[in-house]
Write a structure and sequence with these properties.
about 190 residues, mainly alpha, about 80% helix
Length: about 190
């Protein structure tokens, strides 16, 4: 199996820094499979654009659609969750709606690219709060814990960008020193 440009771009911005649950890994695989062809086509059509900029646009669009879908289905999800609580008690925590996992992984991916692109933290935090508020019932976790967990992705992207920038700057300095030495050789 070949790795798609979508997966490569996510990897380059710090995807491997995220600790994903087994359910989130499954959702990530489904997400990549569902969207890789579209992203590949966009990258080919807009070859003059940076793939991370294209990814930010794609993830913003997908996140908005996913939130709308989740909100539309939220009452049904919460009703199902209540039936599970009434029927299974504490065992209900083993059952989480797929929509919840999808929203969680897509929010993490969106925050990852936001961190990498240097989007303002206050905006990322606001979006993490919005997703956490939606997920708190279905994940049976406090809103602040979900928000904090989601923001780990923002910082992973930000750290990845800083690491790349520092590495590029170091390479640039070495290149300038080599260039200086080669042009200033004593004859």
């Amino acid at each position: 199996m070949t790795v798609s440009a979508l997966h490569q771009t996510f990897t380059s911005i710090g995807l491997n820094q995220l600790s994903l649950s087994q359910a989130e890994q499954k959702e990530l695989t489904a997400f990549i499979n569902q969207h890789h062809q579209f992203f590949d086509n966009v990258c080919q059509q807009k070859a003059d654009k940076n793939p991370t900029d294209l990814l930010l646009g794609l993830m913003t669009k997908i996140q908005q659609e996913t939130v709308q879908h989740f909100v539309h289905n939220q009452q049904a999800i919460e009703s199902m969750q209540q039936v599970l609580i009434d029927t299974l008690g504490d065992q209900q925590k083993k059952f989480v709606a797929t929509d919840s996992h999808r929203l969680a992984i897509e929010t993490r991916l969106w925050l990852l690219i936001q961190g990498y692109c240097g989007i303002d933290f206050s905006y990322a935090n606001e979006q993490a709060e919005q997703s956490a508020a939606l997920l708190t019932t279905s994940l049976a976790l406090p809103e602040h814990a979900i928000r904090s967990d989601l923001l780990v992705a923002y910082y992973a992207g930000k750290n990845q960008k800083e690491t790349k920038s520092a590495s590029q700057a170091k390479g640039s300095i070495i290149q300038r020193i080599k260039s200086f030495i080669s042009t200033n050789k004593p004859y």
